[in-house]
Design goal:
The protein has 163 residues and is an alpha+beta fold. It has one domain: HIT-like (HIT family, subunit A, 2-Layer Sandwich). It has a five-stranded antiparallel β-sheet. Helix 4 crosses helix 6. The termini are far apart.
Length: 163
């Protein structure tokens, strides 16, 4: 099998096709439409947003507010804020989704896998035992078990309860 029908994904595909010029992360930062853009949390120097093309359920991007392409270009307080937000969101995921582990990574440069190489962001990917099954191995297809809207509501509710 080389097709898995997922008609709900057309919304995201058409967003990418019709996207405006410029940086998607700067647009999200400036729009202040957190629900529309799936922004989970904002801090002084960073924000956390659901990845609309997740590797796994709960895949979140921790994004520096300032448009820079590496950690070394951030000021100390920006780096600290970015990492503090990473830990706060990891804790939120842990309380809410209860994953067994996490992949955390930064892709610097297009050849390293960065889809948006000009704007620094950290991938936070929750993992569960058995979350890799036959689909990615035999069909090169990843199954995401929860919609972005449902996950956003769940995480937003848990985040509000915490404060």
């Amino acid at each position: 099998m080389d097709k898995l029908w997922a008609p709900w994904r057309v919304t995201y595909i058409t967003k990418i096709i019709g996207k405006k010029q410029g940086c998607v992360f700067c647009r999200i930062l400036n729009e202040k439409k957190d629900k529309k853009n799936y922004v989970i949390k904002r801090t002084a120097h960073a924000y956390a947003v659901l990845n609309i093309y997740p590797y796994n359920n709960g895949h979140i991007l921790i994004v520096a507010n300032r448009h820079v392409d590496s950690l070394r270009k951030l000021r100390k307080e920006e780096r600290e804020d970015l990492l503090d937000l990473l830990e706060a969101v990891r804790s939120l995921l842990h309380r809410t989704l209860k994953p067994a582990g996490y992949n955390i990574g930064i892709n610097l440069g297009r050849v390293a896998g960065a889809g948006f190489p000009g704007h620094l962001h950290i991938h936070l990917v929750p993992r569960w035992k058995g979350d890799i099954n036959f689909m990615p191995v035999t069909a090169h297809t990843k199954v995401i078990a929860q919609s972005l809207n449902a996950l956003y509501r769940q995480l937003s509710h848990a985040n509000k309860k915490r404060h």
